[in-house]
Specification:
The chain is mostly helical and 377 residues long. The protein has two domains: 22-170, no CATH class; 242-300 and 311-376, CBS-domain (Roll), CATH 3.10.580.10. 57% of the residues lie in helices and 7% in strands. It has helices spanning 2-12, 23-48, 50-54, 57-69, 78-98, 103-117, 125-136, 147-169, 200-210, 218-236, 242-245, 259-268, 289-300, 303-306, 315-318, 332-340, 361-376, and strands spanning 273-277, 283-288, 326-327, 346-351, 354-360. A three-stranded mixed beta sheet has the order 3-4-5. A hairpin with a 2-residue loop joins strand 4 and strand 5 (354-360). The two termini are 46 Å apart. InterPro entries: CBS_dom (IPR000644), CBS_dom_sf (IPR046342), Diverse_CBS-Domain (IPR051257), TM_HPP (IPR058581). Residues 246-303, 319-374 form the CBS domain. This is CBS domain-containing membrane protein.
């Protein structure tokens, strides 16, 4: 009974998982792979002849699929293809020189190439096929014995050049950029959102414990985990929107408002930022208390300003534009990163392009506190 109950589960494991990519991405990858393969083989056929190029067309087509369809994967990065092709060439040439052009030699070249790619961190599956094919790719009479390696490396470089150009032109960053450290406060502290919960070191430990090949970079895995946490938090926090948290009785100014007047509005209402609206009441900028204090301090030591020979500054000269804003229907989870990791103290809230409110870090803390009390009760 037990084995019969597990049979449907085992059978379902044979079925493919659902795809999380769109048909547009399929078309983009297909066109890129075909173009890159055609270009690299065309170059090699003109330089070394079609007969030698055909020997490596199979592995090259497999590399094209990785470089254009899963370009963010660890197996598709530039060092993976260049380093793995180089490993395959060195191993295959050594095997053919000391052993022979046989199936045993080809299998040995495949195994040794894989063994060499792992410590060099350049694992790329098609390179195993490159090593296998190179054992049987005998150069023409009069050609050097290392010509097959030259063909393979030329094809790999041509394919990589196409991937670098095509992927970035189609807005698919390649190679996968490493996320830089936060320099907002110029300290070694992690971002506020990364100080609790899963950390980068936890992912490293998890990958070490797994001890198997995973075709995903640690950076991509971290993005997946944090995105999953974000969606789970969004579900648990219900339907708290920006429109429920924002301040509605707004204090604002115009671009032509003098700096002294803007400073008075900020200090009188105990605000840290002041939205700037044009004549049509559209948000065109924002100024902070730090901006205005710095401007007044610089004029204090300006001789022309002290003598009244320099016109008074207005807020339009100091305001930050364009302004980072959110829609009135933005979920509270989407505001957390903006008001913590990006260092913003307040966020203008727009409804159909018009300013309808402001959300501060205090408003966010109050909303999170209310949600915590709701769960406790």
């Amino acid at each position: 009974m037990k084995s019969s109950a597990h049979f449907p589960q085992w059978l379902s494991a044979l079925l493919p998982d659902s795809l999380h990519t769109r048909p547009r991405e399929w078309s983009r990858a297909a066109l890129g792979a075909a173009t890159g393969f055609l270009f690299s083989t065309w170059v090699c056929s003109h330089l070394f002849g079609l007969h030698m190029t055909v020997h490596f067309s199979g592995p090259l087509a497999a590399s094209a699929v990785l470089l254009f369809a899963v370009s963010s994967g660890a197996l598709a990065q530039p060092w993976s293809i260049l380093g793995s092709y180089l490993c395959a060439c060195v191993v295959a040439l050594t095997i053919t020189h000391f052993i022979d052009h046989s199936l045993v030699g080809a299998a040995l070249a495949l195994g040794l190439s894989l063994l060499l790619m792992c410590p060099l961190r350049c694992l790329h599956p098609p390179a195993g096929a490159i090593a296998f094919c190179m054992v049987f790719a005998t150069p023409a009479p009069g050609e050097p014995f290392w010509q097959p390696a030259l063909v393979a490396m030329t094809a790999g470089l041509g394919l990589l050049a196409c991937a670098l150009l095509y992927n970035n032109l189609t807005r698919m960053p390649y190679p996968r950029p490493h996320p830089g450290a936060s320099t907002l406060h110029r300290t070694r502290d992690p971002l506020p959102s990364e100080r609790a919960g899963i950390k980068a070191g936890d992912l490293d430990h998890a990958l070490d414990e797994l001890g198997a090949f995973v075709d995903v970079t640690r950076e991509d895995l971290e993005l997946i985990v944090r995105s999953t946490e974000k969606h789970a938090l969004r579900r648990s926090m219900g339907d708290i929107r920006a429109g429920q948290m924002m301040s509605r009785d707004l204090v604002h100014a115009a671009p032509a408002t003098p700096v002294a007047k803007g400073l008075y509005l900020l200090t009188h209402h105990q605000l840290k930022a002041l939205p700037i609206l044009d004549r049509d009441k559209r948000l065109v900028g924002i100024v902070s208390l730090v901006d205005l204090v710095s401007a007044l301090r610089s004029r204090r030591f300006n001789l022309r300003a002290m003598l009244g020979l320099q016109k008074k500054q207005v807020l339009g000269e100091l305001m930050t534009s364009p302004v980072q804003s959110v829609d009135v229907d933005a979920h509270v989870v989407d505001l957390i990163a903006l008001l913590s990791d990006e260092g913003l103290h307040c966020l203008p809230v727009l409804d159909d392009g018009a300013l309808v409110g402001m959300i501060t870090q205090t408003d966010l803390v109050a909303a999170l506190h209310r949600d915590l009390l709701r769960h406790l009760n």
